[in-house]
Structure formats: structure tokens, C-alpha cells
Amino acid sequence: MIPVAIDIPHLALDEIDSTNAEALRRARDGEAGPLWITAARQSAGRGRRGRAWTSAPGNLFASLLLADPAPIPEASQISFVAALAVHDAVCAVAPSLASRLALKWPNDLLCGGKKLSGILVEGETRHGLVVVVGIGVNCAHHPDDTLYPTTDLAAEGEPASPQAVFVALAQAMRGRLAEWDASRGFASIRDAWLARGPAPGTPLLVRFGTTETEGRFETIDTHGNLLITGDEGVQTIAAGDVFPLHRPDALPSNRHDA
After folding, report:
1. How confident is the model over 160-176, as pLDDT tens digits?
2. What would the pLDDT profile of 198-209 be if each residue is shown by its tens digit?
3. Does 44 lie in the same domain as 150?
4. Residues 6+ apart with CB under 8 A from 214
5. Contact at 8 Å (CB) between 250 and 148?
6. In terms of Cα–Cα distance, which of 4, 13, 23 is closest to 133?
7. For the chain, N or C: smaller number of CB within 10 Å?
8. What is the CATH number of the domain that holds 54?
């Protein structure tokens, strides 16, 4: 264990296949958390829906292991909690970017419309619920061949070390988890996310597998689902990849996550 300026145990590794995978292995071996795991490099990082996650040194790769963070039906809300914590952290280390930051449903952080961070939440039920929140922040570099346009802090003129971003993230996550209060405070989290999300009426395209749906952003509901209004009225969407409707060229089918 390497101590940092946070009050949750932190395991800092030089290299691992995936910080999420390591957190899940430790949970299966009896680790209850909370525990942060970071790595300078991942050899098999992954994003949502099994996509590869580019993991060269210089960026932040972190996972937070939590046991029973909320009742199982509400546990997925932690995606929004984590998204707000990442937003808070980047504002802390790169204040000049604050006005250019926005959240893309459910939990990507954008800077100037380009992806700066991604979050992967995984869970297992072994003697209770175990949740791992994996967070990647592009600090020093970003990939080019990606599903969504990407950027990094250095490219945006606000270089910050992975360690500095991690300390800010851990502190922000602590505050947002307390605000969420095991889902009892989701109304506050939802309001905060909406204040940083797309404006009502923003045209969106949502892709899930081979299915595509177009509509205008309405809100997220009290469960965290995306609500859009299209030709068939208001639709409730529980999962999918979201793109600005004016960016049809940003919809490749076989690229890596960022």
C-alpha cells in the first residue's frame, strides 16, 4: 500500500492487466473494500461492452472497490456519482477547462465535445453486492482511432499528472458518495448531473448493438434512464452509446474505446 492524501486504502501498481479485473479478483478473495487500485499501465484495459481501453503510461487508470454501496436495484446509479466526481476532479486540477466540460449519458466526461474520461462499472453478487468503479482519465495523451472523438488534459493546455488527478478524484468521489448516501440522495445527484449534461432538446442518436434511435434529449428519470423524444413520442433508454445527431461520421462500428 502506498499512502496518498485520501482516507481510503490505495494500492498503486506499476502494471496490471486491468485495475477492474484486479479489484474483482481481490473481492473474490475476500477483500470488502473500500479500496482504490491504480496502475501506471494496463495490459488489457477495457471499456464498456468489452471494448479495448488504450492504457499507455501517462494517463490515469483507477478502480474503486465497494461492498454493498446501495440496494441492488439502485446500485447502477453509481455511474452518475462517479461521473460527477470525475467532473469535480478535472475542475480542481484544470480550472481553466471548467466551462468546456460536459457529461454525456451516462458517465463520459467531454471537453469541448471530445471524450476526456470514461467509466466502467462492474458488479458481482457474492455474499452481498460488490461494485467496482473503473475510471480512466486522459492526462498526457489520447488515442485517435476511437468510437468517439477524444482529447487529453495536456492537449487542452492543462497538463496534470495521473497522481494529481487521482488525489482530486478520490477526494471528490468521497464527497459525491456521501451526497448519494446509498441512493437516498439520488435526487441531488440527478440534478447535479443534469446541470452538466446536454441541454433539453439536444438532438441525439442512441446506438445499442445494431439498433439506432434518434430523438431530442428530455432528461434522465429517477432511475437514471435516458429519456428522448422522437417520432414515436418519449422513449425510455436504459443502455446504449449516445452521439450528437449532427455527427453521423462519428459512428464507426469497429473502433476502440478511448
Report:
1. 999 999 999 999 999 99
2. 999 999 999 988
3. yes
4. 203, 204, 205, 206, 230, 245
5. yes
6. 23
7. N
8. 3.30.930.10
